[in-house]
């Protein structure tokens, strides 16, 4: 599935499907939308009647010369009351509609984020982080404006109906002249709808690439500066930025040609035609009432302006359809993180692992693991070694259930791993990665991940992995601030915090994915005792970068191209004189050098 491309055009059927998907989120707020539309109808009715009040006053009183002060006051007060009532209806209409829109979009954003964090890792392998962020932020924000399309649509519809009724009541022949221009407006709508979707799709896709480039640049800012890549990155960013600018220019040109300027021209033409007819009639028989002229002059704007707003909203409508399609695309991506079998209830008690004939592929075509077999008894340590791409991390991904496997068996304590609830796996299997990610907050929250552990328990976990000493040496101790990524701390300190994060959960199985690969030898020696404490009494699987750290492993597997090519203890593999022997000798030689 291609998740990073967006369609540039949509059929009416596709637009309807996207609209149905979005409208489903309004279910809890339809009462508010309905009340808003009722208030909107009141606004339109009053707006259409106000010119009639002035028209009747002009023709029935001013023209006849019998407009007394009392009549003038009564008409003025009546007009004022209607205007105040219209303002109240407008407030109710806008408040209810905007609140319902915000809550609906909030639900969309929650649903989208909830879906994203449950997606399988394969999705994040395919889609840049910036693109995902754009889906959850920019695209959902666009939907707020998308709902305003329907505010303008119904507002325009109610206005046109109310004004149309008023015009036909006053003079049906003149009203027909106004309505004769409707086919021209409908033609504009057709032309705009045909070309706007493609332009807005290009604009949204350019914005997504812009966000992705920005996110990547910020994440890799240290590399950019270290290798003096600022000019190249600026040039690449400018290229993407200019693509977005060009797409925006195309939108502005289209909107300037087909939206309000075109409607204003039609309105002026209709009004000129009506004035010509009224003037001609006045010259012929002097039968034109001045109040009617005033009313139709007012109605020209009241009739065409809402139509212009409706067409103007088509630009937002097309933008919303594109954003809706991108949201729908994410929600339709159903390769979720692996789940347990229905009714799964097995528990991890001892931490015994047995893998039989395991084969695995990320893309369904190229196997990265082929017929993997091994056993790890409770409390034993298994080490995985091999060159980059040999399949070490893939074994971890399968064991942690980050990816689904289709061939072979993975057993823990005699239970198929698919029969163990995911919550049980996450609670009983502790993972320490090569790169320790720290969240905004403080050290204590990064250890507990906001679970309910008391201070004594947190400190005990830190002491267990030898992290307590450096934490107490920092201002604020366990409540010292942590910025994203833990950049304020050294790599070794971040890793010790991640050790405490893992050990506080008291896992039965410990997985160390090259946990000391990014740490210098001196620092590694300081934290090795923390690792030793963590491993004691636990089944441990280690992906080893430095072979000297796994000499005491109960079993070592050497992998190449997804297959186990050697197996045994450190001494057995050295004595065999194979690949492991060569790797160990090479590292020993480099260390001596």
Automatic annotation (TrEMBL):
One of its GO terms (cellular component) is plasma membrane. InterPro entries: AAA+_ATPase (IPR003593), ABC1_TM_dom (IPR011527), ABC1_TM_sf (IPR036640), ABC_transporter-like_ATP-bd (IPR003439), P-loop_NTPase (IPR027417), Type_1_exporter (IPR039421). It is a multi-pass membrane protein. Its main location: membrane. One of its GO terms (molecular function) is ATP binding. Signal peptide: none annotated. It is found in: Cell membrane. PROSITE patterns: ABC_TM1F, ABC_TRANSPORTER_2. Residues 353-586 form the ABC transporter domain. The chain crosses the membrane at residues 33-54, 66-89, 149-168, 174-192, 257-278. This is ATP-binding cassette, subfamily B. Keywords: ATP-binding, Membrane, Nucleotide-binding, Transmembrane, Transmembrane helix, Transport. It holds the Pfam family ABC_membrane. It comes from the Bacteria. Residues 34-319 form the ABC transmembrane type-1 domain.
